[in-house]
Amino acid sequence: MSTTDDSFSVTHDPIDIQRPSLKERWWHIMDTWKIGIIPLPLFVLAGALIAIDCLGGKLPSDIVVMVATLAFFGFAYGEFGKRLPIVGKLGAAAICATFIPSALVYYGLLPDVVVESTTKFYKSTNILYLYICCIIVGSIMSMNRTVLIQGFLRIFFPMLCGEIVGMIVGMGVGLALGLEPFQIFFFIILPIMAGGVGEGAIPLSIGYATLLHMDQGVALGRVLPIVML
Q1: What angle do CA 96, 38, 220 make, to 5 degrees?
Q2: Residue 178 burial class via C-beta count within 10 angstroms: exposed 0-12, middle 13-18, buried 19 and up
């Protein structure tokens, strides 16, 4: 008598594992490998095109090229700051994206064609005005109307008291250190209270440039360190 039960025999059929197609691999790279918000292949392509223009001695200052150029350098330095140990989690990305380009221009390490085209773009288009309007209006419009009104009514008086006390304390400390009242108020206290870079330092520097008859870049250079640090 046979003791073998064929009903329990196991067949080892080969498992058909589908490998991802070339298209799926491409979109996986585009979705997961990024510098800032730019997919790595597009980032490399933008860098190559910018390098070719720089080697040719002419970088167009139109909005398409300038947006790609500013995004390339800004996200590159931001990614560098984000990957720094310890300080990368303490805001180093924003600091690197802000101060490294300034240092490169100061020490003459950026190609002249990049500096000239960027300067021409900012001065000829007034893109900062559009940026300020978009970021401020966008921030307000994205908030819930009821929460915005109720929150403003609740924090207005405490915020006003805090602003007044902050001005008094700031002026007192500055005077104790021997600083001029004008410098204390306009280039230390107000930048701190302005709030951030896009909604504070940049609009403030534009106003200072108009009222004090100084270059907007110089005004921003004096205001920005206080805001960032």
Answers
A1: 35
A2: exposed
Give SS3 for 101.
helix
In sequence order, which residues have a C-beta less than 8 Å from that of residue 69 and are 6 or more positions away?
46, 50, 59, 114, 117, 118
Residues 6+ apart with CB under 8 A from 100: 77, 80, 81
Give the range among 8-17, 27-36, 56-65, 141-150 with minimum mean pLDDT.
8-17
∠ Cα 105 121 95 (to 5°)? 45
- Identify the CA nearest to 205 among candidates 224, 195, 193, 220: 220
DSSP H helical ranges for the chain: 22-32, 40-55, 63-82, 92-106, 112-125, 127-141, 145-176, 181-184, 190-194, 202-211, 216-228
Q: What is the pTM of this model?
A: 0.70
Residues 195, 196, 197, CA angle at the centre, nearest 5°? 135
Q: Which residues pair with 121 in a beta bridge?
A: none
Mean pLDDT of the chain: 84
pLDDT in tens, 95-136: 888 889 889 998 999 889 999 999 899 888 878 788 878 877
DSSP per-residue string spanning 34-62: EETTEEHHHHHHHHHHHHHHHHTT----S
Structure confidence at residue 6 as a pLDDT band (50, 70, 90): low
Phi-psi category of 38—alpha, beta or left, where left has phi over 0 and alpha has psi -120 to 50?
beta
